[in-house]
Amino acid sequence: MNLGLAIEYLFPSVDFENGVRLQNDGHGVYIAKWDESLGKKPTAEELEVAYALYLVEQVAEDKAQAYIAKARVQKEIKVLKAAKIIAQDDSEIDAILKLEDKISKEETKLEDKISKEETKLDSVVATKER
Q1: Are residues 61 and 19 part of one domain?
Q2: Lowest-confidence pick of 21-30, 47-56, 89-98
């Protein structure tokens, strides 16, 4: 668990320079100083849950970005297909086919990324359910 990210998730306005200090004396990171103005210091369990939620949100955001990129690529493919229909000669068609191939490869990469993000999300959820 990344203690700093967990605290930041629970307390977005946390000030690690003046209010909260994390420390590692060789036995793991711990809260050495807590800013009481933030409220009660979170328990280890609360921090674990916060970190798990942080990870889920990050993976979901990565997955959403991949879907957005995939939608853009699919739009580009449609435009290229339309361009093929109105192309005037073989050189234009060849150029369009090369672009279409490049964009199709990018779409495949994005599909792989989406699949990996789904696997990561499943892993995070499964780990935290134990």
Answers
A1: no
A2: 89-98
- Long-range CB contacts for residues 38-46, cutoff 8 Å, separation at least 24: 38/11, 38/13, 38/14, 39/11, 42/6, 42/7, 42/10, 46/10
**Structure token pair of residue 30:** 């711990």
> Considering the entire predicted model, what is its pTM?
0.61
CA end-to-end distance (rounded Å), the chain: 15
> Could you tell me if 113 and 66 are in contact, meaning their C-beta atoms sit under 8 angstroms apart?
yes
User: Residue 36 sits in which domain range?
Assistant: 1-42
Q: Are 74 and 21 members of one domain?
A: no
- Reference 55, options 106, 9, 116, 108; nearest CA is 9
Same-domain check for residues 32 and 59: no
Helix (H, G, I), strand (E, B), or coil: what is residue 48? helix
The residue ranges of DSSP E strands in the chain, in sequence order, are: 21-24, 29-33
